[in-house]
Amino acid sequence: MKIYHKEIRFETRGELDVVDLTGKVENIVNESKVKNGLVNVFSIGSTAAISILEYEPGLKNDLKNILDRIVPKDMEYEHHLRWGDYNGHSHIRASLIKSSLTVPLVNGSLVLGTWQQIIFIELDVRPRNRRVMVTVMGEE
């Protein structure tokens, strides 16, 4: 079995910026030469998340709206009191969405539906330099 790692680096525009990583992940899969296996996409950081979404403006806005309802920004979080950085909601949102995603790889292609894209969600309150680790595991 072959294991191939590569990091994606990029800047975000700040809270609730949604970045489509699908093309970058596909490029890494091609570089790896792995044909059948699994691809893990992992966000390095505790105030960001990885998920799958149809990457279109309406759904990106719906995602932002539902996060505001489920984990409101304007609540008092103990994290705020301890650290004063006012991103307690960012950590909670990240823990609910999760920091990684695994996608099957068959015949050199990610197994994604027509409208499924791999997305990174910035949950911190400010723009950030981000790192995402992609690990491709399987057989050539």
Helix content: 25-40%
What are the secondary-structure elements, in order, as H or E? EEHEEHHHEEEE
Query: Quick one: biggest sheet?
Result: 5 strands, antiparallel
N/C terminus separation: 8 Å
The CATH architecture designation is Sandwich
Q: Give me the CATH fold name.
A: Jelly Rolls
Structural commentary:
- By secondary structure, the chain is α+β, with helices and mostly antiparallel strands.
- The protein has one domain (2-139): Sandwich (Jelly Rolls), CATH 2.60.120.460.
- Helix content is 29%, strand content 39%.
- It has 4 helices and 8 strands, in the order ββαββαααββββ.
- It has a 5-stranded antiparallel beta sheet with strand order 1-8-3-5-6, with helices on one face.
- The radius of gyration is 16 Å and the shape is elongated.
Précis, in short:
The protein has 140 residues and is an alpha+beta fold. The protein contains four helices and eight strands.
What topology emerges from the helices and strands here?
Blueprint (H helix, E strand, L loop, with lengths): L1 E10 L6 E3 L1 H11 L3 E9 L3 E6 L3 H14 L7 H6 L4 H10 L2 E7 L2 E2 L6 E6 L6 E11 L1
Please describe the structure with a list of short key phrases separated by commas or semicolons:
five-stranded antiparallel sheet; elongated; three-stranded antiparallel sheet; 140 residues; 4 helices; alpha+beta; 39% strand; Jelly Rolls
